[in-house]
Specification:
Elements (H helix, E strand, L loop, with lengths): L2 E6 H13 L4 E6 L10 H12 L5 E5 L8 H9 L9 H6 L1 H10 L3 E4 L1 H13 L10 H5 L4 E6 L4 H13 L4 E5 L5 H9 L2
Parallel strand pairs: 1-2, 1-3, 4-5, 5-6
Helix pairs in contact: 2-3, 6-8
């Protein structure tokens, strides 16, 4: 049987690309990416899905970083005896923890985007925060931010246009850093190791 991976929906497509290119025998079970707007629910959703799939696979793993669960996800990981991706969030996985820490040390008002967030910014951020209905709240939500950095995994002209649009919607300057998949491929392979 293959390895079942409970994955953040924002990473699932990238993991599928890695699995296909490296002929990895995995089945991906994505959870809704909008859980990131309610990180206190992530651990419970992961726990429930692990319970549902554990008998279908010889082994399971979790493709989430901590993602704002403040250790709650690690409690679930320990209870199931599985592995998860490292880091505090996917920015650590794509850009490297040291680079993210350096960026934040130089400007703590940095708002990060990934390819997924660039593609889904209007739905994931604007609609979820109610800015489509109450745009005057933009300053309340983003007043402490000074810039947007897009940590680009697979940049294209279309994604660059979307990233520029996202930054413009919150009236912040955009910087683009091409980071590729960073440590994602290596960490996925590590999830599959014994």
């Amino acid at each position: 049987m293959s390895v079942g991976i409970v994955a953040c929906g924002a990473l699932a497509t990238h993991i599928a690309d890695i699995a296909a290119s490296d002929s990895l025998d995995i089945t991906i079970y994505p959870l809704p990416p909008l859980l990131h707007n309610r990180p206190e629910k992530i651990a419970g959703e992961v726990d429930q899905l692990l319970n549902e799939i554990k008998d279908k696979h010889s082994r399971c793993a979790v493709a989430y970083a901590d993602c704002g669960t403040y250790g709650a996800l690690d409690t679930v990981i320990a209870a199931h005896g599985v592995k998860r991706l490292g880091g505090n969030h996917c920015y650590d996985i794509f850009a490297g923890r040291e680079k993210v820490e350096s960026i934040m040390e130089s400007d703590a008002g940095t708002y990060f985007l990934t390819d997924f967030l660039v593609k889904s910014f209007h739905r994931s951020v604007i609609v979820e925060l109610g800015l489509d209905i109450r745009p005057e709240l933009r300053d309340d939500y983003f007043k402490n931010y000074s810039r947007v950095i897009w940590l680009a995994q697979q940049p294209t002209p279309e994604l660059e246009a979307l990233a520029k649009s996202a930054a413009a919607e919150i009236e912040l300057p955009l910087e683009i850093q091409n980071v590729g998949y960073g440590q994602l491929a290596a960490q996925v392979k590590q999830l599959l190791s014994n």
